[in-house]
Amino acid sequence: MKPIYIDYLNALDIEALALTDAEILAAIETSLAAQGNGQTVIEPRVHLEPDESFHGHFNVLRGYVAPLNLAGVKIVGDFVDNYKLNYPSEFGVLNLFDPRTGAPKAILDATVITDMRTGAITALGAKHLARKNSKVLGHIGARGTAYWNVRLLDHLYDFDEIRVHSRRPESRDAFAKKLSDDLGKPITITDNWQACVEGADIVVEASRLPEPQPMLKTEWIKPGAFVVPYGTMSAVELSLTDIMDKLVVDDWGQCKGGKFGSLRAHVEAGKLSEQTLHAELGQIVAGHRTGRENDGETILFWHRGLSLSDIALGYAMLEKAKANNIGQRLRFA
Question: What Pfam families does the database record attribute to this sequence (predicted)?
Answer without folding.
Answer: OCD_Mu_crystall
